[in-house]
Design goal:
- The protein folds into 2 domains: 81 residues, no CATH class; 122 residues, Leucine-rich Repeat Variant.
- Helices cover 65% and strands 0% of the residues.
- The chain contains 15 helices and no strands.
- The radius of gyration is 19 Å and the shape is globular.
- It starts with 10 loop residues before the first helix and ends with a helix.
Length: 237
C-alpha cells in the first residue's frame, strides 16, 4: 500500500484498509496489557502511524472513523483529526466513549493536548467519576507537559493541586495516569521539578490507598541523577 492518498478518503475506504491490515494474532497480547479487544482488529500503533501520515489531517473523516467504534479506527481518528476544529462537545462525546486506557492516551496525547480546550478539560475531567474519563484528565496533563512548549510554568503549576487531590483514587488506570502527569510536569524544568517533588512529598503523607506508590515512583524518577543532570544542562543552555 505504498504511495499517498489523493483527495478526501471515505471512511469506508479507510475501514477497508484497516480490515486488510487486521492481525488477530496480536489480540491476546493486547488483552494482557489491559487493552479492550472487544472491537479490535489487532493492528499495532507502528502500523497505524504510516497510514495516518498518508491520509493527512481530515476532521470529518476522523469523526466518521470514531463513530465506527473500532479500536484502530478510533486511534487513527486521534492521529488525523485537526485540533483547531475540535470542540468541547466533541471532546466530551469521545471521553464518554472511552473503554480502554490505550484509546484514552492516544486521544489525549495525539490530539486533545493540542486543542485550545486542553486546560479546561484537564481540570474538569479530574473530578469525573468514570475511570477512563478521569484517566483522560491526567493523560492530558502528561501530554500538555510534553507537547505544549509555549505553556507558562504557572499553567502547569495549577495542575499540581489536582494531581494531589486525586492521588487517592485506588483504580489502577487512574493512579498510573496521576503518577504519569506528576512525573512529566516535574521533568519539564528545574523549577517545576522542585514543585513536583514537593507535591509528591505531600502525596506520600496522605493516608489513603495508592498514594504511597504514586509518590514513591514519582520521587524515584524526579530525583534520579539522570533527570537532575538533564534539567541542569537545560538550565545552563
Amino acid at each position: 500500500m505504498a504511495g499517498a492518498y489523493i483527495g478526501t478518503m471515505d471512511h469506508k475506504e479507510v475501514m477497508g484498509e484497516l480490515r486488510a491490515m487486521a492481525n488477530p494474532s496480536n489480540l491476546p497480547g493486547q488483552a494482557r496489557f489491559g487493552i479492550d479487544i472487544s472491537n479490535s482488529l489487532g493492528i499495532s500503533m507502528t502500523a497505524l502511524r504510516p497510514l495516518a501520515r498518508r491520509i493527512g489531517k481530515d476532521h470529518d473523516l476522523a469523526l466518521a472513523l470514531w463513530r465506527t467504534g473500532v479500536r484502530e479506527a478510533r486511534i487513527l481518528a486521534s492521529l488525523i483529526d485537526d485540533p483547531e476544529q475540535v470542540t468541547l462537545e466533541q471532546m466530551d462525546a469521545w471521553a464518554a466513549g472511552f473503554t480502554s486506557w490505550e484509546v484514552v492516551d492516544a486521544c489525549c496525547c495525539n490530539l486533545f493536548d493540542r486543542t485550545e480546550h486542553r486546560y479546561v478539560k484537564a481540570a474538569e475531567w479530574a473530578g469525573a467519576e468514570p475511570e477512563f474519563t478521569k484517566r483522560a484528565a491526567f493523560s492530558l496533563m502528561a501530554g500538555i507537559a510534553v507537547h505544549d512548549r509555549g505553556a507558562a510554568d504557572e499553567q502547569l503549576l495549577a495542575l499540581l493541586p489536582l494531581i494531589q487531590r486525586e492521588a487517592c483514587d485506588p483504580r489502577n488506570f487512574v493512579r498510573k495516569a496521576v503518577n504519569w502527569a506528576l512525573r512529566q510536569i516535574g521533568k519539564r524544568n528545574s523549577g517545576l521539578n522542585l514543585a513536583a517533588i514537593s507535591t509528591a512529598e505531600l502525596i506520600a503523607g496522605m493516608d489513603c490507598r495508592g498514594a504511597g506508590w504514586v509518590a514513591s515512583d514519582a520521587l524515584r524518577e524526579l530525583r534520579s541523577p539522570q533527570v537532575q543532570q538533564r534539567l541542569s544542562l537545560k538550565a545552563e543552555g
